[in-house]
Write a structure and sequence with these properties.
Distance between the termini: 45 Å
Helix content: 25-40%
Largest sheet: 4 strands, antiparallel
Strand order of the largest sheet: 2-3-5-6
CATH architecture: 2-Layer Sandwich
Strand content: 25-35%
CATH topology: GTP Cyclohydrolase I, domain 2
Order of helices and strands: EEEEHHEEH
CATH class: Alpha Beta
Low-confidence stretches: none
Radius of gyration: 16 Å
CATH superfamily: GTP cyclohydrolase I, C-terminal domain/NADPH-dependent 7-cyano-7-deazaguanine reductase, N-terminal domain
Structural class: alpha+beta
Shape: flat
């Protein structure tokens, strides 16, 4: 069940011998491919244990583990393009909560998934840990969205 070249048409970063790493926030780097299993609800988990961004006030670096869980619909995010996109936050100055919501909204825009959540586990600064959680659901997964939000709240309390 190999993919045809037509199915891979929008995937340009993967296999590129000349990867260029962005220096500024670049949502246009996100690429998708067709989900061949649209009849199934299934979960995809993507981990980025080395996410970095900048404090918008001080310019000091912030570090986090970002976890993305989603139930795809028609499109799926290509992992190398996601890596480059997340790397583009390296010089981006925003609060932790903003970064997580931006990532969620950008992924929803390119994929239109059935469900998506983004979790940030940021390294403590000033003795406080911040773990923002943002999620999205289509109309058929709204109850699941609410359950996941509640489960995340109970886990972090």
């Amino acid at each position: 069940m190999s993919r045809t070249s037509d199915e891979l048409q929008g995937v340009s970063q993967l296999g590129s011998a000349q990867t260029q790493y962005p220096t500024n926030y670049s949502p246009e780097l996100l690429e998708t491919f067709v989900n061949k299993h649209q009849e199934n609800d299934y979960l995809v988990t993507l981990n980025c244990p080395e996410f970095t961004t900048l404090c918008p006030k001080t310019g000091q670096p912030d570090f986090a583990k970002i976890t993305i869980n989603y139930i795809p619909d028609k499109q799926m995010v290509e992992s190398k393009s996601l890596k480059l996109y997340l790397f583009s936050f390296r010089n981006h100055g925003d609060f932790h909560e903003d970064c997580i919501n931006i990532i969620m909204k950008d992924l929803v825009k390119v994929m239109q998934p059935r469900y998506l959540e983004v979790v940030g586990i940021f390294t403590p600064r000033g003795g406080i840990s911040i773990y923002p959680f943002a999620n999205y659901a289509d109309e058929n997964h709204t109850e699941f969205k609410n359950q996941r939000l509640l489960a995340h709240m109970n886990k972090t309390i």
